[in-house]
Amino acid sequence: MKINSAEFLLSASTKRQFPPATLPEIAFAGRSNVGKSTLINSLLNRKKLVKTSATPGKTQLINFFKINDQFFFVDLPGYGYAKVPKSVQSKWQDLVEAYLSERETLRNVIVILDCRHSPTLQDRQLLDWLNYYERPLMIIASKIDKLKRGQVKKQLQKIKHDLSTEHVPLGHSSMQYGKRKEIWEKLFPLIEN
Ligand SMILES: Nc1nc2c(ncn2[C@@H]2O[C@H](COP(=O)(O)OP(=O)(O)OP(=O)(O)O)[C@@H](O)[C@H]2O)c(=O)[nH]1
Ligand SMILES: [Mg+2]
Fold this sequence. Notes:
The protein is α/β, with parallel strands linked by helices.
């Protein structure tokens, strides 16, 4: 995909702040620190478009990015970080749920997990919930560079099994070229107007 332009559009803390639903959207969801924001930068080949951090809880609002004036990438706040107060987590959850259930132009949710960790209850709940709302999704197991080559296949199978999903997780590393090409190939048909 040739990226001619990629710009930060806005951050939303309430539904009313969402931009008008005019273009196809792809959202990035998952636990805090799994690499959602980094994956966006890696797909767009931009190092610093989206702020990332080694400290979990970096993305606290729903951030909309406009790409090629053609589609939006939507970076969601991560869940499951204990240091974020419960009241704040629950506010995010309401906002993210409202976004995921209501947004008409949302074409796919990229669910990201850290390949080294077992899926959590919240990961499974997210998938159940997306299935309930019949949202198309793909699963990416991130940070695959942290595994030994021989471990990759087994770990991906374990994640699939633990999630009891029919979706086959794609192992990706944003530190390397990873599976960018495969991810874009899945996204192309979804972002055509
Ligand atoms: N080794 C490795 N590190 C990664 C990869 N992707 C992300 N990271 C690192 O993981 C940390 C978290 O990345 P972020 O992209 O900020 O994670 P996030 O999911 O957006 O986190 P929140 O915004 O807190 O929800 C950063 O230190 C990244 O450099 C990867 O593929 N491999
Ligand atoms: Mg983030």
